[in-house]
Design a protein that fits this description.
- The chain is of the alpha/beta class and about 400 residues long.
- It has two domains: about 160 residues, Rossmann fold, CATH 3.40.50; about 170 residues, Dihydrodipicolinate Reductase, domain 2.
- It has eleven helices and 16 strands.
- The strands form two sheets. Strands 14-13-12-11-7-10-9-8-16 form a nine-stranded mixed β-sheet. Strands 3-2-1-4-5-6-15 form a seven-stranded mixed β-sheet, sandwiched between helices.
- The longest helix has 20 residues.
- The chain is globular.
- The chain starts with a strand and ends with a helix.
- Pfam families: GFO_IDH_MocA (PF01408), GFO_IDH_MocA_C3 (PF22725).
- InterPro entries: Gfo/Idh/MocA-like_OxRdtase_N (IPR000683), Gfo/Idh/MocA_oxidrdct_glycsds (IPR050463), GFO_IDH_MocA-like_dom (IPR055170), NAD(P)-bd_dom_sf (IPR036291).
- This is Glucose-fructose oxidoreductase domain-containing protein 1.
- Belongs to the Gfo/Idh/MocA family.
Length: about 400
């Protein structure tokens, strides 16, 4: 039996998500919006029977067993922790909260309820090109997977901003290219190689501080350009440039994985590779010509049933594949809350989400300081009032 779905959020992701869920056989039972008007309008548009602006109304519905959290990031941790506590499966959009402290709460909740699904929507993991890229790396196309030398990422796309001032315009509320695009890149690198980020260096810039639609007293603080380097724990170097300055809704993404033997590259949704082969038995000119062509490993020919002018095609296709994997996880079992792990094994966990959040925090610090910064993973929640705690400790010592 497939579980009933509750959706948190009324934005572009929700409008792509709901048709995919229905296509795969899921029943969408409820939707939440920040205002009742927003929720009602989206419910009518998507033909969802129940709408509300109260979080608990969705979570407490008996026929909702799996929630998709695709609202503003400031609510991700709160809804995830509450949903897991009530016994609901959770798929949360990136990022995992606004900071590491929020991500840690999500991790703790997921660890406390291990029988529930708790995954982050890093949908590029499910894009076939990256699944084949990972398999090619593991199978030794580039030699020993631990001897990869460089990953080079280039993402060029249009603006991420909407027609009104909202959280997308504000860096502290989860807006900007680092959080919305960079988080996918950081997660993808670990997924492809199995290596963890240890040190980072980054430059974040907000070049467009106002637009025709967003101007006046409020300024845009969300970065529209970032470039960063990641030093991985086994010597691999990652370099990435993310640029939101192209006109219109366009999206170009190239990801090269290099070793001393050659490279693999994903362009859009296609995977190609090339090795440095030298055949000593034929003339140099012919040798060059023979190896000008790349190996075609995977070509994406599948059409999407639902598209969006806002969300890039690779992310939508990955999301569709992730929903298919969720269906496979739930379908073989008879109880609505039971599931099998294998189909969703590739998905990003809340721990992965925290590691991405830690990397992004280090990148922001690096951009401010202008130097390489070590990634530090929180294991304990930060003290909300360190000055008060120090005073209490001093009082306790003096009383002894």
């Amino acid at each position: 039996m497939l579980p009933g779905i509750g959706v948190f959020g009324t934005g572009s992701v929700a409008k792509v998500l709901v048709p995919f869920l229905r296509e795969k056989g899921f029943s969408v039972e409820a939707i939440w919006g920040t205002t009742l008007q927003e929720a009602e309008a989206t419910a009518k548009e998507l033909k969802i029977p129940f709408f509300t602006n109260k979080i608990d109304d969705v979570l407490l519905k008996k026929n909702v067993n799996l929630v998709f959290i695709v609202c503003a990031p400031n609510l991700h941790a709160q809804i995830s922790v509450k949903a897991l506590g009530i016994g609901k499966h959770v798929v949360c959009d990136k990022p995992a909260g606004l900071c590491q402290a929020e991500a840690l709460k999500m991790v703790r909740a997921a660890q406390y309820y291990p029988t529930l699904i708790s995954i982050i929507n890093h949908s590029l993991r499910f894009l076939p090109a990256f699944s084949y890229m990972r398999k090619s790396i593991v199978d030794g196309y580039l030699g020993n997977p631990e001897e990869l030398t460089l990953i080079d990422v280039r993402v060029q796309m249009g603006s991420l901003l909407g027609n009104t001032y909202n959280w997308l315009c504000d860096d502290t509320m989860g807006g900007g290219t680092l959080t919305l695009v960079g988080s996918h890149v950081i997660d993808l690198v670990t997924f492809l190689t199995g290596q963890k980020v240890v040190k980072v260096h980054g430059v974040l810039r907000t070049f467009v501080e106002e637009t025709d639609k967003v101007n006046g007293i409020r300024k845009i603080t969300a970065p529209d350009f970032c470039t960063f380097q990641l030093q991985m724990d086994k010597g691999l170097l990652v370099t990435a440039t993310l640029n939101n300055h192209l006109p219109g809704p366009c999206f170009n993404q190239e990801i090269y994985v290099c070793s001393k033997k050659g490279y693999l590259v994903v362009r859009g949704g296609d995977l190609h590779g090339k090795l440095h082969k030298v055949n000593k038995n034929i003339p140099e000119e012919e040798n060059k010509r023979a190896h000008d062509k790349e190996d075609v490993i995977y070509v994406d020919v599948e059409d999407l049933s639902c598209t969006s002018s806002i969300i890039p095609k690779p992310y939508i296709k990955g999301l569709c594949k992730m929903i298919s994997a969720l269906k496979e996880a739930f379908l073989p079992v008879k109880e609505q809350m039971d599931w099998i792990k294998e189909p969703v094994r590739a998905a990003a966990t809340f721990e992965d989400g925290q590691r991405v959040q830690a990397t992004m925090e280090a990148l922001r610090k690096s951009s401010e300081d202008g130097c390489w910064t070590t990634v530090q993973l929180l294991t304990e929640p930060p003290d909300p009032n360190p000055a008060l705690s120090a005073a209490v400790r001093r009082t306790a010592i003096s009383l002894q």
